[in-house]
Amino acid sequence: MSQIELKNIDVTFKQKGRTVQAVKDVSLSVEKGEIFGIVGLSGAGKSTLVRTINYLQAPSNGQVVVDGTDLTRANAKTIAKVRRKIGFIFQNFNLINNRTLAQNLAFALTAGGYPEKQQPARITELLDLVGLADRQDNYPSQLSGGQKQRVGIARALANDPDILLCDEATSALDVETAEEIIEILKGINQRLNITIVFITHQLEVARSLFDRVAVMENGQLVEQSSTYDLFAAPQSDMGQRLVSRFLDTTLPAKVQAQVTQTDGQLLALRYRGSDSLNPIITKIAKETGIDINIIQGRVEFIQERAIGVLVVYLTGTAVAISRAVQVFKQRVDYVKEVTTHE
Amino acid sequence: MNETITILQQNLGTALWDTAKMVFISGFIGIIFGTLIGLFLYYFSNPLFSPRPVLNSICGFIINAIRSLPFLILMVVLIPFAKLVAGDPYTPLGGAVSLSVAAIPFFARLAEGAFAEIDAGVVEAARSTGAGFFLIFQEVLFPEALPALIRGVVLTLISLLGYSAMVGTIGAGGIGDLAIQYGYNRYNTGVLISVIVILIVIVQIVQWCGDRLAEHYTRS
């Protein structure tokens, strides 16, 4: 059985007589020890969905099963018990501002029933883990954003959780600090085998952290795959939009006009690194009698596997070009015809 | 001038003590019960805890009803109640009864506001640890709301000082009564001015101490 199972989750809010369906019929399961990501634009329902896992948000319909416990049928006591084994990391850190770091952690430990006498040692251990051992008596306002988030991680780990939920945990941080936090989370996942569910709108995070990823749009799950597959060949509209923006191949208008002076077709291609594209390009050029001009190309690494990103310009007779496009579509993972008037 | 000094020498000590009794007794009761009611209002309106809109609006209605009475009227209406509780309504203790009844809903609203202003994310984070409400109150709500609560206490004490003069005029004594009795009724401007100066000084001191204290407990 999977560690987290969400079955047909609906979440409906009633706001001033208006009904808002934040999550619509979402089912997914997360395995023990994996890093599962949910991506989507803001307002897609990601935050609401992730909060059903520790039942900060009760679903209107559906079933939430965590480690075999059906939370939808559990009483408040059982829910509190399950919560202690689920750490939560927030975008805005959410530390108690008027309490020191040690007191912030002591609160989480007390909530988890950790014996008071052993708390000081545990607090030192936790702060040491995130590299803030000498800041015990500081207040959150004395820390930078990245340091605050590290305290957030320490707090989430206080009671030896089995699961970490991260709600845009890197979105309020600069790129470098965000990478630092991602490395910490990766290390935690590998060393302690803690399952991580991470929601974000940043595809950089998806690329460097997630094992599997789901795409959410308007409250629905529109796609679910390995991270590599999502980047190589997104299936849903939203998946394609998110990935295209990330693997940006748009040419500046002036350049595009220059390139496309002669009649032809601009193609954006993405292909799995294991395929070697050169023979295909040469072959298609030969077969169809067109010229293929490579405008730009690069290789992205996702989960340590390569994805080729290429923009080519096809010139030749209209019939030959359309045939060539067909052949590309058969042999390459992702083909997008870029219209010159865009 | 000599008369003013004699009056002040004979009466000022008692008057100050009576005022202190009225303000501190009613302030203490108002703060304790007001905090509890404020917490109650917060608990039953926050979606992270246990939202009970009906219970909340009933409680809110009662608070508003008491607060909508001008203090002068509330005081008169409560004379029988003060008699029941304190024996003689025309003593500082009797005066403290109606002052308390006014202070409770006043501070309840301030406390509710202080709790409601706490960053919802911080409370949510506390909730996600599996902590119960009492622990969250003690370790999150109270320290986070403390500066606002202290400012509320200052506001309440200063308002009570003002109201205590009104209770004083119906016989409960105190510094306000001194000003009316001698300063107004007997045309002794010296007493009136002295009382005004004393009141200004007291209010300044209370405000200053409250501000320092609130600052001390603000770490963000």
From TrEMBL, chain A:
<dbReference type="GO" id="GO:0006865">
    <property type="term" value="P:amino acid transport"/>
</dbReference>
<keyword id="KW-1003">Cell membrane</keyword>
<keyword id="KW-0547">Nucleotide-binding</keyword>
<dbReference type="Pfam" id="PF00005">
    <property type="entry name" value="ABC_tran"/>
</dbReference>
<dbReference type="InterPro" id="IPR041701">
    <property type="entry name" value="MetN_ABC"/>
</dbReference>
<dbReference type="InterPro" id="IPR003439">
    <property type="entry name" value="ABC_transporter-like_ATP-bd"/>
</dbReference>
<keyword id="KW-0813">Transport</keyword>
<feature type="domain" description="ABC transporter">
    <location>
        <begin position="6"/>
        <end position="243"/>
    </location>
</feature>
<dbReference type="InterPro" id="IPR027417">
    <property type="entry name" value="P-loop_NTPase"/>
</dbReference>
<dbReference type="InterPro" id="IPR017871">
    <property type="entry name" value="ABC_transporter-like_CS"/>
</dbReference>
<dbReference type="InterPro" id="IPR045865">
    <property type="entry name" value="ACT-like_dom_sf"/>
</dbReference>
<dbReference type="InterPro" id="IPR018449">
    <property type="entry name" value="NIL_domain"/>
</dbReference>
<dbReference type="GO" id="GO:0005524">
    <property type="term" value="F:ATP binding"/>
</dbReference>
<dbReference type="InterPro" id="IPR050086">
    <property type="entry name" value="MetN_ABC_transporter-like"/>
</dbReference>
<keyword id="KW-0029">Amino-acid transport</keyword>
<keyword id="KW-0472">Membrane</keyword>
<comment type="function">
    <text>Part of the ABC transporter FtsEX involved in cellular division. Has ATPase activity. Essential for cell division and viability.</text>
</comment>
<dbReference type="GO" id="GO:0005886">
    <property type="term" value="C:plasma membrane"/>
</dbReference>
<dbReference type="InterPro" id="IPR003593">
    <property type="entry name" value="AAA+_ATPase"/>
</dbReference>
<dbReference type="GO" id="GO:0016887">
    <property type="term" value="F:ATP hydrolysis activity"/>
</dbReference>
<dbReference type="Pfam" id="PF09383">
    <property type="entry name" value="NIL"/>
</dbReference>
<comment type="similarity">
    <text>Belongs to the ABC transporter superfamily.</text>
</comment>
TrEMBL record, chain B:
<protein>
    <submittedName>
        <fullName>ABC transporter permease</fullName>
    </submittedName>
</protein>
<dbReference type="InterPro" id="IPR000515">
    <property type="entry name" value="MetI-like"/>
</dbReference>
<keyword id="KW-1133">Transmembrane helix</keyword>
<keyword id="KW-1003">Cell membrane</keyword>
<feature type="transmembrane region" description="Helical">
    <location>
        <begin position="93"/>
        <end position="111"/>
    </location>
</feature>
<dbReference type="InterPro" id="IPR035906">
    <property type="entry name" value="MetI-like_sf"/>
</dbReference>
<feature type="transmembrane region" description="Helical">
    <location>
        <begin position="55"/>
        <end position="81"/>
    </location>
</feature>
<feature type="domain" description="ABC transmembrane type-1">
    <location>
        <begin position="16"/>
        <end position="208"/>
    </location>
</feature>
<feature type="transmembrane region" description="Helical">
    <location>
        <begin position="22"/>
        <end position="43"/>
    </location>
</feature>
<keyword id="KW-0812">Transmembrane</keyword>
<dbReference type="InterPro" id="IPR051322">
    <property type="entry name" value="AA_ABC_Transporter_Permease"/>
</dbReference>
<comment type="similarity">
    <text>Belongs to the binding-protein-dependent transport system permease family.</text>
</comment>
<dbReference type="GO" id="GO:0048473">
    <property type="term" value="P:D-methionine transmembrane transport"/>
</dbReference>
<dbReference type="Pfam" id="PF00528">
    <property type="entry name" value="BPD_transp_1"/>
</dbReference>
<keyword id="KW-0813">Transport</keyword>
<dbReference type="GO" id="GO:0005886">
    <property type="term" value="C:plasma membrane"/>
</dbReference>
<feature type="transmembrane region" description="Helical">
    <location>
        <begin position="149"/>
        <end position="175"/>
    </location>
</feature>
<feature type="transmembrane region" description="Helical">
    <location>
        <begin position="187"/>
        <end position="206"/>
    </location>
</feature>
<keyword id="KW-0472">Membrane</keyword>
